Amino acid sequence: MNTAYALNITDDIWEQYKATRSLELRNKILMNYLGIVKCIAIKMNSVYKSKADMEDIINEGVLVLMDCIEKYDPDRGAKFETYASFRIRGAIIDFIRNQDWVPRSLRKKVKTVEDAYYKLQSESDNNVSDEEVAAHLNISIDELNKTIGEANSFFLLSYEEMLLDNSAFNNFLVEDSTEWQIHEEELKSVIAQSIDELNENERAVISLYYYEELKLKDIARVLGVTQSRVSQIHAKALMKMKNKLKKYLEE
Questions:
Q1: Could you tell me the pTM of the whole model?
Q2: 104-250 has which fold?
Q3: Which end of the chain has fewer CB within 10 Å, C or N?
Q4: What is the Cα gyration radius of the chain?
C-alpha cells in the first residue's frame, strides 16, 4: 500500500507522550498518522462501497487511531503504523459486518457454493472446474457465476476476516515473537501458493487489484471484459484463496 503519511514521530516523542500524556503531543501524533486511516479506507473501498460512506469509515478509523495512540507501548517493539493499521482494518471489518448488509438468501447461496468448492477441492489434487461445481450443485454455469458475482464484496470481507483472525499480527506485541514470525512467514507462503494455483485470468485480476491497486472498472478496461465479469473472476479467486488458507489452518 502506498503511504502518504510521514513517519517522523521519533521514539523520544513517544516516550515524552507516555510520560506526560500531553494533549499537544497526542494531537501531533494523531495528525502525523491520519494518512494511515485514509489509505486503508481507500484500499478497502470495494468491501464497503454501497454499504457505508467513506466519511463514516474514516471517522470510525480515526476513533480507533486515537485509541491506538493511548494504548500503544513502544517498549514492546512493534511499529506503531503496523499496530494501528491492523486494528483499523479490523474495526472497519467489524463496522461493515455489523451493518448486516448481505441478504440472508444470498448469504445462504454463497455458503452453499463455497462449501461445494471446498468439498470438491479437498477430494481432488487438481483445481476444481466451474463445470464440476455447477454439476455438483445441479445448477447452470450462468447461475453459479451470477451468485459469485453478486457476492464479490462478501468474499472480500470474508477473506479479510480470515486473514485478520489468523494472522500472526494478532500476537505481534508479545515479547517473544519468534514463533509468530515463523507462522507469519508460513502464512505468506500459503497465500503466495494459492495465487500461483489460480488460472491466468484470476491471477491477472488479483495482481491488478492488490498490487497495481486498480479499481474493478479499470481492471475491466485493461482486460477488455465487463465489470460484472471482473467481479465474478475476483470473487472466485478470493474464494479459492480462502479455501487454500482454510485447509492450511485446519492442518
A1: 0.64
A2: Butyryl-CoA Dehydrogenase, subunit A; domain 3 (1.20.140)
A3: C
A4: 20
